[in-house]
């Protein structure tokens, strides 16, 4: 499954956030009896109010949300790209993730020193981006000689060479590929084989104190700094407390500090979106569940997420959109109203499809 690597400078609250994520993983593990959860992996459920409605309608015994996996990538320091600290290990681990989540410190605390002396989100973002950019430039430097040779006699390699050269220019100017490829006319698909770090989607967690969390001007400024990447604002210490509490107490604590939703829940939602994922829904007496697929997945591919036999033996999918189902009030009523469709193997799944698959075994 897809995962998001968490990176950040020392003392910004990564471990605090990650502890909250691993505790949340333990709580969710009950829903995924066959999943083994690695110690460096944190998992959060993606909040989805539709599941509660479905569980009510179908009398489902439990709710299983879609989930997002976060991997703790230690070792990002200034100079990581030239092997400082455990820089090489850092780069190898981050290469394996599908998106990069930067944790940026906003909170002030005289008891927690900052590696660069004072608190500056902008400088920290630049420090991290510089390391990732330098790593990408090294990768490019290594592949260029071979690529130049190939491009002299292979037409399809010429487009790749041009993309790589344009990427090098962009990176040299201090811009990540994620932020700048589009406007520079670079097709990221041409660069896929090189696993460049800054071509991965980025998201940002700003670790802030409670009073900073209600400072809309500050948040707007920070969001702007990282656009088009999405930003989540949270207090890692508060999140670590919230995961220790029973659900109702956690909700109460959140309300008392003027928040509607936990930072982890927001992070799950934004992470899911950043990875380019979407869900389809199933419901029955056993469970109401959100399943994860890539945008553009077909009905048999979606069936395969539930079980590979479902994909192999796929016949058709009985589909009703969540909104139509809720409006009708029950599956039978939705059928009677002609809202339940039979879709074949070429059907492209839509977000919010409630599905039952028909298959041969
Ligand atoms: P890491 O080095 O990035 O993993 O940072 P840690 O999670 O170990 O946090 C470093 C220190 O900052 C610890 O003493 C944490 O308790 C503290 N810390 C983490 N998050 C916050 C926060 O939101 N506010 C405050 N005041 N302290 C925090």
Tell me what the structure shows.
By secondary structure, the chain is an alpha/beta fold. The protein has a domain at 296-359: Beta-grasp domain (Ubiquitin-like (UB roll)), CATH 3.10.20.30. Helix content is 44%, strand content 19%. It contains 15 helices and twelve strands. It has helices at 14-29, 49-58, 87-95, 121-153, 155-172, 177-180, 210-213, 216-226, 236-242, 247-256, 263-274, 299-306, 308-312, 322-328, 331-336; strands spanning 3-7, 41-45, 62-64, 67-72, 99-105, 202-207, 230-234, 277-283, 287-294, 314-321, 341-343, 353-359. The strands form three sheets. Strands 2-4-1-5-6-7 form a six-stranded mixed sheet, with helices on both faces. Strands 3-9-8 form a three-stranded mixed sheet, sandwiched between helices. Helix 1 (14-29) runs parallel beside helix 9 and helix 4 runs antiparallel to helix 5 (155-172). The longest helix has 33 residues, at 121-153. The two termini are 25 Å apart. The relative contact order is 0.14. The mean pLDDT is 91. Bound molecules: guanosine-5'-diphosphate. ATP binds at residues 11-16. GO terms for molecular function: ATP binding; ATP hydrolysis activity; GTP binding; metal ion binding; ribosomal large subunit binding. ATPase that binds to both the 70S ribosome and the 50S ribosomal subunit in a nucleotide-independent manner.
């Amino acid at each position: 499954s897809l995962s998001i690597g968490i990176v950040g400078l020392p003392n910004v609250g990564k471990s605090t956030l990650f502890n909250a994520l691993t505790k949340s993983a333990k709580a969710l593990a009950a829903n995924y009896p066959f999943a083994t959860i690695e110690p460096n992996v944190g998992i959060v459920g993606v909040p989805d109010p539709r599941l509660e409605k479905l569980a009510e309608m179908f009398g489902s015994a439990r709710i299983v949300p879609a989930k997002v996996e976060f991997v703790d990538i230690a070792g990002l320091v200034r100079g990581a790209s030239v092997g400082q600290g455990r820089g090489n290990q850092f780069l190898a681990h981050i290469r394996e993730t599908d998106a990069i989540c930067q944790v940026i410190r906003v909170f002030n605390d005289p008891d927690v020193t900052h590696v660069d002396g004072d608190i500056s989100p902008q400088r920290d973002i630049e420090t991290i981006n510089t390391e990732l950019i330098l790593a990408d430039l090294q990768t490019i430097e290594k592949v260029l000689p071979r690529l130049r040779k190939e491009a002299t006699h292979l037409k399809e390699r010429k487009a790749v060479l041009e993309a790589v050269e344009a990427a090098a220019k962009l990176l040299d100017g201090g811009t990540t590929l994620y932020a700048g490829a589009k406007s520079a006319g670079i097709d990221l698909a041409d660069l896929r084989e090189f696993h460049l770090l800054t071509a991965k989607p980025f998201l940002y967690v700003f670790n802030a104190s409670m009073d900073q969390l209600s400072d809309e001007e500050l948040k707007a400024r920070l969001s702007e700094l990282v656009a088009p990447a999405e930003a989540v604002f949270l207090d890692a210490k508060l999140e670590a407390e919230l995961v220790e509490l029973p659900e109702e107490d956690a909700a109460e604590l959140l309300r008392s500090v003027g928040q509607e939703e936990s930072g982890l829940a927001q992070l799950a939602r934004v992470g899911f979106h950043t990875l380019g994922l979407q869900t389809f829904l199933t419901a029955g007496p056993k469970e109401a569940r959100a399943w994860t697929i890539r945008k553009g997945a077909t009905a048999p591919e979606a069936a395969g997420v539930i079980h590979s036999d479902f994909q192999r033996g796929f016949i058709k999918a009985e589909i009703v959109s969540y909104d139509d189902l809720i409006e009708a009030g029950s599956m039978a009523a939705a059928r009677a109203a002609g809202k339940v469709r039979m879709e074949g193997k070429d059907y492209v799944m839509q977000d919010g499809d409630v599905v039952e698959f028909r298959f041969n075994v």
